[in-house]
Design a protein that fits this description.
Layout: H1 15-38, H2 42-45, H3 60-67, H4 71-102, H5 108-119, H6 127-137, H7 144-166, H8 172-179, H9 184-195, H10 197-213, H11 216-221, H12 230-235, H13 245-265, H14 267-274
Length: about 280
């Protein structure tokens, strides 16, 4: 097979590079417009033709979001709930993924199929019975009323991620630990855990993002303002005849920062985890 290499301008201007640029622009354009509009005064938001850059940048919408609408409380609630649920999910997913990937457990096939079915089960189908259950247990308008359902709904997918990552680790790691007399628990936390960090980072980012951006259960279970999360709080901005677009834009910019920081910090670990097992050496 001939080894064809592009030379000259074809190395840079080709179908792959053009497609990548188009996709990047389509992805970045809404984010840029959101960011730029959050600094525009209210009078400039509805101007025609629209301006690409704010003529007089202003922080009034950010002050309204944190002052008038208590957006800081919503951010605290979302981060607390998402971090707690993510920590529990990662702990359970590590243990369950290790058992399904490395131990002789009977019925692995049905378990994995069940996890897959649960992970794609629509949330709206169980919101009503969950609401009745939480009302009877007195868990409405509380942090645990969201943390427990988030753990239950995000755990199956995290187990899948950890199982697929752990099954490709060399078994020599456990054999050496077993020869030293280490128990299964000691092996998981001392030997497997350091090697499984990329998989944990990937599962953690997916879980945190899902919990941080979830809307339906947060809207249904927590009606009190002091327990509302970011998606619900932003959706309820304004009044019956008023939609404060600038404030919504400003709050949305702040809301995407935690997820963006996580992705930027752990992007290498996520890529290595997603490609683990794709190439066999």
């Amino acid at each position: 097979m001939r080894n064809r290499t592009r030379r000259g301008w074809r190395r840079y201007i080709n179908t792959i590079n053009i497609s990548a640029v188009v996709i990047a622009l389509l992805t970045a354009a809404p984010i840029y417009w959101l960011f730029a509009s959050s600094f525009k005064p209210s009078a400039e938001l509805g101007s025609l033709p629209p301006t690409l850059l704010p003529r007089e940048p202003s922080l009034e919408h950010y002050r309204e979001a944190f002052g008038q609408y208590s957006f800081g409380t919503y951010m605290f609630n979302s981060v607390l709930i998402a971090l707690t649920a993510t920590a529990v999910v990662l702990l359970l997913a590590l243990l369950a993924g290790y058992a399904l990937a490395r131990l002789p457990v009977r019925g692995k096939g049905p378990m994995l199929v069940g996890l897959l079915v649960i992970s794609v089960f629509p949330t709206i189908a169980v919101v009503t019975p969950l609401y009745l259950l939480e009302r009877s247990l007195g868990m409405l308008n509380s942090y645990q009323g969201l943390i427990l359902p988030y753990i239950a709904f995000n755990l199956p997918f995290a187990v899948w991620i950890m199982r697929n990552y752990l099954k490709d680790l060399p078994f020599e790691l456990e054999e050496s630990a077993r020869m030293d007399g280490a128990s299964v628990t000691r092996t998981v936390f001392s030997i497997i855990l350091p090697a499984a960090r990329p998989g944990l980072f990937t599962a953690g980012i997916f879980t945190f993002t899902a919990c941080f951006t979830e809307f339906l259960m947060a809207m249904t279970f927590n009606a009190e303002d002091r327990f509302r999360t970011v998606p619900v709080g932003i959706a309820l901005f304004g009044a019956e005849f008023e939609v404060p677009y600038g404030t919504i834009f400003a709050a949305s910019v702040v809301a995407i920062l935690p997820v963006a920081i996580l992705v930027l910090v752990f992007r290498r670990a996520v890529v290595s985890s997603m490609t683990a097992g794709a190439v066999k050496g």
